[in-house]
């Protein structure tokens, strides 16, 4: 009888809180999330975000830890409109998540706390990963700086973007001497 009274007292309180409780990220309460995130970039994706993750705010939010907040946007790419999500850690951009046909197919990692499974993170120098650009890297278009994309060793889905200042001709690959001091500015996962 005592438990019935307690239930009757708690029920209205629980029901009035339903609208605010829906905004809580309940996955952060799971015991396996209590001791920090072990999010890594792997061949399958970034943490729990993979090629089968729906390109939808709820699905991406559930796959991310509570350290991130999401915002969505649209842009044009190759003449078509692309929907994307940005994950922010505090006020800093950490991930840009793009998709195609309703699922995730491209993630740019800018958060230095999300390394690859082999330990490479944003800020790792070119010289620690490559002896030369030839055979590993290509110059890619960029809005503000010269950018070089290099395929991660032994990977078909992971590449690294290196950005820096270079006064050579547009579209030409900087020399290895120039690149050796550049650092990873983004880790890219593509399906």
Characteristics:
single chain; 191 residues; alpha+beta; eight-stranded antiparallel sheet; two-stranded antiparallel sheet; 5 helices; 10 strands; 18% helix
Protein model, in words:
The chain is an alpha+beta fold. It is about 20% helix and about 35% strand. The chain contains 5 helices and 10 strands; from the N terminus they run ααββαββββαβββαβ. The protein has helices at about 1-15, 20, 55-65, 125-130, 175-180; strands spanning about 45, 50, 70-75, 80-90, 90-100, 105-110, 135-140, 145-150, 160-165, 185-190. The strands form 2 sheets. An 8-stranded antiparallel β-sheet has the order 3-4-5-6-10-9-8-7, with helices on one face.
Strand content: 25-35%
Mean of all residue-level pLDDT scores: 83
If you compute it from the alpha carbons, what radius of gyration comes out, rounded to the nearest whole angstrom? 21 Å
Computed structural class: alpha+beta
What strand line-up does the widest sheet have? Answer: 3-4-5-6-10-9-8-7
Unreliable residue stretches: 13-36
How many helices in DSSP terms? Answer: 5
Distance between the terminal alpha carbons, to the nearest Å? 58 Å
Order of helices and strands: HHEEHEEEEHEEEHE
Tell how many strands the DSSP assignment holds: 10
> Biggest β-sheet: count, sense, barrel?
8 strands, antiparallel
The coarse overall form would be: globular
The amount of helix comes to 10-25%
